[in-house]
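Backbone-to-sequence.
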């Protein structure tokens, strides 16, 4: 399995402990391997889910009309195995909320000349990544992973944000390292760079592993809500859809407010509903008042 995503330190650890990364990835049913997967053993249930009986799907579709066949790429096959394992093993729940983006849009407009001078496109996604980094520091349980045997919670003292990128060859998730220690301009520049290189398939495996949590943004396409699948070994994922204008009431006076829908899927083994609601409420507060992220 040449598509295994593991940092150099994880590869060294695997070598020291005599762990075959390809075999471990097959057992876990995914390609992203972290240190907890080397230390914590295997998850037999993942392997079992990968071998589920799907013989009843074997239908002769041509019997009902004309068809053509298109082989799945190796990249798509690997992603499909990971998603299937995650969906079958993680008791996931999705919490929905929304946030006022009036202040973000005002700042982006006011800072447009500076963005042009810097040669950086200041997108709303940069604000989301900065807000998520701060939330992960404020809510450490979201910045964690379960060991492969599900017995130990590993709390991380770093904040790495995965950014899901839709490419012609499949979904890729490059990672912004130490996002909580970076300013808005640097985050914006890194998002643009990572997205561009992902499209060109110039992202290395060491740039895609080890995220604390992932953002998947469909705002440029559409939709009002969705339920993103948690990307193990992360315990939560944040989905964003298209900003919509809603009516808010200031006393008896209606006013239009641009609101972004937010969809937080989380592993219920680690996070309960009240925690998720508090997390997303805190997040929405940062988005509504982005200057709090710049202190």
């Amino acid at each position: 399995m040449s598509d295994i995503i593991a940092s150099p330190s994880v590869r060294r650890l695997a070598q020291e402990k005599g762990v075959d990364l390809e075999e471990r990835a097959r057992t876990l049913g995914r390609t992203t391997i972290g240190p907890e997967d080397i230390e914590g053993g295997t998850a037999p249930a993942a392997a079992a889910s990968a071998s589920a009986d799907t013989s009843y799907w074997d239908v002769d579709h041509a019997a009902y009309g004309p068809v053509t066949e298109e082989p799945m790429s190796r990249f798509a096959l690997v992603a499909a195995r990971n998603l299937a394992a995650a969906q079958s093993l993680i008791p996931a729940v999705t919490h929905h909320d929304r946030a006022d983006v009036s202040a973000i849009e005002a700042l982006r407009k006011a800072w447009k000349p500076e963005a042009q001078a810097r040669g950086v496109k200041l997108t709303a996604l940069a604000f989301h990544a900065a807000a998520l980094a701060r939330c992960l520091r404020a809510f450490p349980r979201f910045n964690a992973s379960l060991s492969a045997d599900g017995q130990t919670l590993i709390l991380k003292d770093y904040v790495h944000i995965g950014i899901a990128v839709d490419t012609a060859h499949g979904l890729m998730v490059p990672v912004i390292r130490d996002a909580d220690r970076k300013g808005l301009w640097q985050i914006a520049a890194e998002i643009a760079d990572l997205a561009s290189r992902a499209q060109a398939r110039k992202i290395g495996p060491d740039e895609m592993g080890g995220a604390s949590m992932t953002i998947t943004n469909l705002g440029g396409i559409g939709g009002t809500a969705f339920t993103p699948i948690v990307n193990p070994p992360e315990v939560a994922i944040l989905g964003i859809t298209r900003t919509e204008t809603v009516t808010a009431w200031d006393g008896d006076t209606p006013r239009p407010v641009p609101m972004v829908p937010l969809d937080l899927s989380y592993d219920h083994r680690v996070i309960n509903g009240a925690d998720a609601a508090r997390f997303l409420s805190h997040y929405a507060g940062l988005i509504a008042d982005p200057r709090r992220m710049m202190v």
